[in-house]
Design brief:
Length: 220
């Protein structure tokens, strides 16, 4: 049985959770509260960097969500979430890397600023917003007339960006200026895997104090 060590607010965890659901694989969810349990010896033996997610499949243990997605795609290739065409593969990887290296850091900064976790004047907020706008413009261009970011079929690109972008309006970052991208986000939200893994407002509210501590540490 596959085991996924996760936290419901973690976008990194959620993209793996969605992959497991989309591939219709049997798995067990092992929740971590991230209130110090990530530093316990049992979990550190799985991931010495004390992060979620961690996936355990029989004797295989993998950390880092992108590596986990690649493992699942290679071992459980149906339904396929990685195209075979060279250009399409590059597109998927490009979207994944831009999400990880550009969008997520800017979103962490923006979230910390609007929630008051860190001090930020209007100029700093505008700079952060511009970073996110640049990514959204890029994604809109790459999406074009396709249903999904990797083409017309759901791919690992959608799982990676799709656990960040659809939540931006809740962080006062409208998608109205990106109509194709907004339609894409709405398309994802109708999928059972997205609905099943969507954290509730109550879960988010309860996690805010820990979120502040974790995000403040990540930004320092």
């Amino acid at each position: 049985m596959i085991r996924l060590y996760y936290h419901p607010i973690s976008a990194n965890s959620r993209r793996v959770w969605i992959a497991l659901l989309e591939k219709h694989l049997p798995f067990e969810l092992v929740p971590l509260n991230l209130d110090g349990d990530q530093y316990q010896a049992d979990f550190l033996s799985l991931n010495p960097f004390h992060h979620v997610p961690v996936l355990v499949d029989a004797e295989v243990r993998i950390i880092e969500s992108i590596a986990i997605l690649d493992y699942l795609e290679a071992k459980y290739p149906i339904p396929a979430m990685l195209p075979t065409d060279a250009k399409a593969i590059a597109m998927v990887r490009m979207i994944q890397m831009v999400t990880l290296t550009e969008l997520i850091p800017a979103t962490l900064q923006w979230t910390s600023q609007i929630l008051g976790f860190v001090e930020a004047d209007i100029e700093k907020q505008q700079q952060t917003k511009q970073k996110i706008d640049t990514v959204l413009t890029f994604f809109q261009q790459q999406l074009g007339d396709c249903h999904y970011l990797g083409g017309n079929d759901l791919s690992l690109a959608d799982l990676t960006a799709g656990t960040i972008v659809p939540g931006l309006p809740e962080l006062e970052m409208s998608l109205d200026g990106y109509p194709s991208l907004k339609a894409w986000a709405e398309r994802l939200s109708t999928r059972p895997s997205w609905q099943q893994t969507q954290p509730t407002p109550e879960t988010i509210a309860a996690f805010l104090p820990q979120m502040k501590a974790l995000m403040t540490t990540a930004l320092t």
